[in-house]
Design brief:
two-stranded antiparallel ribbon; 4 strands; single chain; 9% strand; mainly alpha; 5 helices
Length: 176
Amino acid sequence: MRKVLLALCGAIVTLIAVCLTRALMLPAAPSSESAESPVDLAQNRDAIARRLAQAIRFETVSWGDARPMNEEAFAGFADFLEQTYPAAHRAMRRETVSSGSLLYRWPGTDASAKPVAFLAHLDVVPVEPGTEAEWTHPPFSGAIADGAVWGRGALDNKGQVITLMEAAERLAAQGF
């Protein structure tokens, strides 16, 4: 079972890396300006890391039992996405489903084309009581250290949410 979980974590990390890399490789809108310099690219990566860190600070815990979810955390996360990715939110229509799930629809230019779905979830599993001291950084700190963003949801699954929103924001800002 442990090998399966490690393999799954490895696959998720790989997916995040591929999605983030592909999003960063999208061509810029044509302009008379030169290509991004290495400094600009580093600043862009740092800004994305800061946005992921902010996302981690929302304690969107799913208990998996009868305990109610923290509706304020989920609503705050939804507001954060809207404020952080304004072009994406102008291009897409967002619905809230079951008081915490978000569904985005982005109409294409060809109504006869088949739709595409990109999925990620906003909730994270709770921190097991008594394990708090074992964390390198507090689970909801969104700490940026040692070349990584630390916290509950960095890999599963807020990393994917932020990756998808980063890509949508860049495309929407270019008029896609």
